[in-house]
From TrEMBL:
Species lineage: Bacteria, Pseudomonadati, Bdellovibrionota, Bdellovibrionia, Bdellovibrionales
Residue stretches spanning the membrane: 42-60, 136-154, 160-176, 183-201, 228-246, 253-271, 307-327
Assigned keywords, A-Z: Membrane, Transmembrane, Transmembrane helix
Protein name, as recorded: DoxX family protein
GO cellular component, one term: membrane
Amino acid sequence: MARFFWIILTLFSPSAFAHVKWFTRESFAKPPITFADLNTPTFWNLFVLSMFTLASLVWLDRRLESWGTYRKMNEYFDQFTSRATLILRVFTGASILLSWQVDSMIAPELHLYSSGWGWYQFALALLLLFRVTTPVAGAGMVVLYIFAATQYGIYHLLDYVVYLAIGIFLFLSNSTDKRIKDLRIPVLYSGLGFSLCWVAMEKLFFPNWGLDVLQQQPALTMGLPPEFFLMACAFVEMSLGYLLIICLLQRPLALVITIVFFTTTAFFGKTEVVGHTLLHGALLVFVVVGQRGTYQPPIAFHKNLGLRMAFASVNFAILFALLAYPYHRLSQQAYDKHQHMMQEAHGHAEESHSDGSR
């Protein structure tokens, strides 16, 4: 029970959402750990606990629906639904300008080496000032995402599928076809949910990255063993991403995540602001929109409470399996490529040294 209590606390820990690539001093010095390495009692206990917690949250969601205060809160936020696009335009524009200022694109570690693409981002921010040009900005974000994938590889850019989802959201924002326009919400939920789930995998398969961050900020562990705490954070992040995908407890969940993201700034500073401003915009959209529109959320496929609980827990296990194998495969390929490049660089350095000594 004590360990369960500490796991719940990790939900409010900044490191549960820290993108370790932004802060670790590690790179691909070590290969990703194997599935055999993950096959530990701690891993399976956290896995089963996550499934149980998700099923319990389905029950909680049903209880909240009958609570008058919760219904009034939903009615209050419903007043702002029409401002969803404006909210995302403001936060996206701010995020793009911050990236432009630090010579990056999409995320802090994706550096720009061409001033032309920097000015391209500035133009996107200008386009977001006006409702009529917002779809053009959205299309431009999709183009920038594709360009970044050609520079850094699709494996790296899968961390930032949410950026692509926001581009699509903005591109569809002025559509006069309700069914097309309503696609924006499931695309945004799925994009951010996938990004959180995918990034959670790096905490599992590259624990040395996360442990390096915890070594720099030991207070984040709240007194727990770093290895256990890091794995617990991975399951918390994976679970929250999954909840966004199936659209369970959308508004409370979005509020919790955005509050935690704000607290990370105290630990990680300006880099965190640059990286997460875009996500704050998406989360605030979830707060004002909830789940409205033409398309039924996945969690609503079943009306029966027991079936919903089974749906939430079983599909979590399925999604985990569907993500874990390709993540490990792609990360191993990225490691092998990095090692090959390091060997080539070392060989060239030795040749230069040999030529210089003659």
